Amino acid sequence: MKARRIVFIILALAIFMSFNIQGGMCKQKQEPKQASGGDLYNEIELFSDTISIIKTDYVKDVGPKELIYGALKGMLSSLDSHSQFMDPDTYNEIKVETTGKFGGLGIEITIKDGLLTIVSPIEGTPAFNAGLKANDKIVKIDGEITRDITLISAVKKLRGEPGTKVTLTILREKAESIFDVTVTRDIIRIESVKRAEILEDGIGYIRITEFQENTSKDLGTALEKLKKDGMNSLILDLRNNPGGLLSVSVDVAEKFIEKGKMIVSTKGRMKSQNMEFKARDPKPYMDFPIVVLVNEGSASASEIVAGALQDHKRGILLGTKTFGKGSVQTVIPLRDGSALRLTTAQYFTPSGRSINGEGINPDIMIELEEKTAEKDEMKEGKKEEKKEDIFEKLEKEPKEGLTPPEDKKGDEKKSDSKKTEEKKEEVKKKSEIIYDSQLLRAIDLLKGLKVYKTISG
């Protein structure tokens, strides 16, 4: 009991000191903190009991820092999939925008339903070229099961020297298959505004792959060029766009929304976290109809733009429901060099709809029709496996690599020849519109709007 009391006194003193040190930051929330302070103080005794029992009875001696760090990791991860405790080494890794170059895969990841999930592969990156898709679940990284993995740990495992390889075991629920994909890391260079062109009949097409610092400027240049080329309507493609900078999403949306109108708001528990972002562009493009293409890989900043255009009836959303990533994380450094990554606010569309966990439903729901064997092999009505069942199944399976569904019919190796790859890319570009059912429907929709405008006078 004496050991327990000592631990309890130390913890109580630490909390008291913490409240005093952070007092300047907590003035706005002083009353609620006092109201809950007593309850917290009472619950700390349970925590101190547990630490005392571990210190005296656990089979191995565990240092106090290791215990406290472990408790903090569990505490933060229990809040939501984005909040995390970072030890000093982990914090330093994300804090330093490394001066040396590191290799990546070109995917945005999150934890969804307890599984490490790809939000979206970015077009033109190793992950995209390897055939990874939005909502693919990464259940193993180089043979190690990802059960209970944190986002920071996953990023550390996926990142590495350019030219090195990483093998991902993928669960693709729609195809009801588990297979291995080996991806070669590379320096990720992203061209955020791609394929700005006139498709047909004055219909412009612009694809935005990510929201970076130069995206708004590049979009403005693309719009001016298309206007000169005779654009009278626009398809804005935000599919498989994992997001990016909040400020840039506002800059993009305001190009199509009247000055002074709301684009997005953030709401948290503190007044300083409640913000409104309104359109400021004095000359937005208001003279042509817009169709916005979205899918389950459209997340965060993409959802902000799509939600604003939909709420203001400035664009028609076509495709499938978006990912639903609409929360703000703040990194708060701690005294020993560690830090908290804490969810402090959520995004809301102009009409007040929450994006986080909800996603945005398109005005016209159209699934992408893919001409692959994968679609034909899908079985209807089969129950989805729980995440525990998936990991148990993986642990029982032999360690040999798993084959992607499209490779099962014949074990033919893919050619590494540059000529073959270039040919494939050429064919893909030429036939992209033919096989893109969502893009075709968007073109038809804009043509229909023009016909209706003509006959209605």
UniProtKB/TrEMBL annotation:
Gene Ontology terms: biological process: proteolysis; signal transduction
Stated family: Belongs to the peptidase S41A family.
Pfam families cross-referenced by the UniProt entry: CtpB_N-like (PF22694), PDZ_2 (PF13180), Peptidase_S41 (PF03572)
GO MF, any single term: serine-type peptidase activity
Protein name (database record): Peptidase S41
Organism of origin: Candidatus Aquitaenariimonas noxiae
SMART domains: PDZ, TSPc
Keyword annotations: Hydrolase, Protease, Serine protease
Any one GO cellular component localisation term in the record: outer membrane-bounded periplasmic space
